[in-house]
Amino acid sequence: MESTRLCTECGRQFQSRSGHSRHMRQHKGQAPYRCCGKMFFDKDKLKMHRNHIHGEAAREACFQCGKLFATRQQVTKHMAVVHNANSENFTCDTCGANYTSKQGLQDHTASQHEGRAAHACHCGKEYRHATNLYRHKKSTKHLTYNVSRQYKLCFFILC
C-alpha cells in the first residue's frame, strides 16, 4: 500500500502519487496540457474541454465567428465578451486574444508571453494565473471575509 503524500503548500493529503503531482502543478501554475490557447492541469479537464468545445457535445455555434460551444448559455456569454460592440475591446498584438479590460490584457501578456507572474500575494508568492493566487490565499487563510466575498473568480474560459 502506498503511503499518504502531503502537500507542502497547503497540507492536503493524497493517497496517490499522481493526485499529489497534479495538485502540486496547480500550486506552481504548471499546466502541461494545452488546446487552442487554453491550459489544463490534468488530462480529464482537457478531455472535457475537447468534448464540449471541439467534440460532439459542441453543437451550438456563434453566428459571428463560428466557434462551437456545448450550450446556448456559453454562446451568449461568448457573444457578450468577444463580440459586444458597446464595450471597449483590448486585443493582444502577439496572439490576437481579446479582453474586455486593459488589466485583463496586461495579465495575459505577462503570464502567456513574458513568462512573468501576473498575480502576487502580499506574502511574496507569485502566480501566473489568478486561480492559483486565489487557491493560495484560500488555503493559507490570506483572504479575509470581506476580501473573499469581493474576490471574483472565473473557473470557465468562455471566449
TrEMBL record:
Coiled coil (residue ranges): none
Keyword entries, A-Z: Metal-binding, Nucleus, Transcription, Transcription regulation, Zinc, Zinc-finger
GO BP term (any one): regulation of transcription by RNA polymerase II
Compartments it resides in: Nucleus
Residues covered by the C2H2-type domain: 5-32, 60-88, 90-118
Pfam families (alphabetical): zf-C2H2
GO molecular function, one term: zinc ion binding
Superkingdom of source: Eukaryota
Any single Gene Ontology cellular-component annotation: nucleus
InterPro entries linked: Zinc_finger_trans_reg, Znf_C2H2_sf, Znf_C2H2_type
PROSITE patterns: ZINC_FINGER_C2H2_1, ZINC_FINGER_C2H2_2
UniProt protein name: C2H2-type domain-containing protein
Species of the source: Dreissena polymorpha
Lineage: Eukaryota, Metazoa, Spiralia, Lophotrochozoa, Mollusca
